Amino acid sequence: MDQAELIAVIEKAARQLAEVLDLSHEGITQLPEQIGQLVDLRELHLHENQLSTLPEQIGQLANLEAIFLDGNRLERLPRSIRDQFDAIHATIPRLALDEQVPLPEHPDVRVPYSKLLLLERDGLPVDHVEVDGDLVEVQVNDLLEGIRHPAGLDVFISYCHQDAKSQPRDEVDLPEAGGG
């Protein structure tokens, strides 16, 4: 599907107040900014395309409950998705958050997500993390927005939710989840 056809499909779905849009298996390499017009959308299926990024306008989909991205080449997720984490977490009663971001070169070493957000807010682009007794420099934005792993794996922030009932950890590595 070329960009003109894709824009036409999106605009038609917006006019029809679509709640579900399936754009899977369409060879899409880039979503147009018009995707932000789908304000009623609850599910967006983008399986098995060739997406490496998502536009910031994806954050305008206030009613979006599920987005399916497996089988793409995502390297980064937009800041607008990350900004939705607090809103999502607020909808889960009794949730005690324990969000951690693993270092790509040292996946067993994790940095608190809240610390990274504070460093970003304060304009500090670099942090130092202890790994096997040595301090390792890490780029804050790389960890927050996803990075390209040296071994060629796409890694997005891996965070976990742990509530009082020991909800299992939710860790995501994009290749294992179908991306890349």
What does this structure look like?
This protein is α/β, with parallel strands linked by helices. It has two domains: 3-73, Alpha-Beta Horseshoe (Leucine-rich repeat, LRR (right-handed beta-alpha superhelix)), CATH 3.80.10.10; 97-161, no CATH class. The strands form five sheets. It has a three-stranded parallel sheet, with no helix packed on it. A two-stranded antiparallel sheet has the order 4-11. The chain is elongated and about 55 Å long. The protein has helices at 3-15, 79-82, 85-90, 113-121, 140-145; strands at residues 20-22, 43-45, 66-68, 97-98, 100-103, 106-112, 126-131, 134-139, 147-148, 154-155, 160-161. It is built from five helices and eleven strands; from the N terminus they run H-E-E-E-H-H-E-E-E-H-E-E-H-E-E-E.
How are the SSEs placed, and which strands pair?
Elements: H1 3-15, E1 20-22, E2 43-45, E3 66-68, H2 79-82, H3 85-90, E4 97-98, E5 100-103, E6 106-112, H4 113-121, E7 126-131, E8 134-139, H5 140-145, E9 147-148, E10 154-155, E11 160-161
Parallel strand pairs: 1-2, 2-3
Antiparallel strand pairs: 4-11, 5-6, 7-8, 9-10
For the largest sheet, list the strands in their spatial order: 1-2-3
SS class: alpha/beta
CATH superfamily of the largest domain: Ribonuclease Inhibitor
- Please name the CATH topology of the largest domain: Leucine-rich repeat, LRR (right-handed beta-alpha superhelix)
